Input
Amino acid sequence: MILLAYAALYAVFAYALHADNVQVGYPPAFIVYSAAAQSLVAAGIAIHALERGESVARIWRWLFPLLLLEPCVGIALDAVIPQDFSFQTHGWEWIVNLMLNLWFMAPAYYFNFRVASYRG
Output
């Protein structure tokens, strides 16, 4: 139940970020890709919680690297695009904020990693 609650919280968090991405001016292709990837990450948490990983492991094996690509591109864009809060404008504050976001996201990606059956 805790993992399903985390999946719901993660989905709300991702939705809020995407609403901001549209306002800030990120490229539309990235916004669509990011929304799809984050939806799949939230779904992966639920799949892991429901222990349904075996049935989707093959799909998640090729999908997982694409899911990892999204935060990497997002971090690069976040560092330079926003005018009000970016690495260029806030330096260390931006880095601390990034670390907090990564701390929140890390379990989600770990659960997706487990769904992909990369575990030993």
About this structure: The chain has a mean pLDDT of 88. The chain is about 85% helix and 0% strand. The two ends are 25 Å apart (CA to CA). The first helix runs from residue 2 to 24.
